Amino acid sequence: MAATINISLPEPLKAYVDAQTEAGNYGTPAEFIRELILDDRDRHRRNLEDHLLASLKEKANGIEIPEDVLESGDIVGFLEAKLQNRG
């Protein structure tokens, strides 16, 4: 079920959103905003994973991350499984 949120934009931003919709890039202003939010969420996740990976590479902590895990991007899942196996 979709929830509704109301936002206020300065006129130049509203005009930009409207232009994107009118150009056919998005069906509605809501689709445009939704995509921006999803992109932002994905960017934050990638940054978190990048910082985690950098930290692991610096300190190693005796944990080696296999190449296939690095390629799959499921570093968090791999570390969760490692922690469960230790306990």
Describe this structure in words.
With 87 residues, this protein is mainly α. The chain has one domain (11-86). The protein is built from four helices and no strands. The two termini are 39 Å apart.
The structural class is mainly alpha
Calculate Rg over CA atoms: 20 Å
The largest sheet, given as strand count, sense and whether it forms a barrel, is:
none
Order of helices and strands: HHHH
How many domain units? 1
Short description:
The chain is mainly alpha-helical and 87 residues long. The chain has 4 helices and no strands.
What's the arrangement of secondary structure elements?
Elements: H1 11-22, H2 29-59, H3 67-72, H4 75-86
Keywords summarizing the entry:
87 residues, mainly alpha, 4 helices
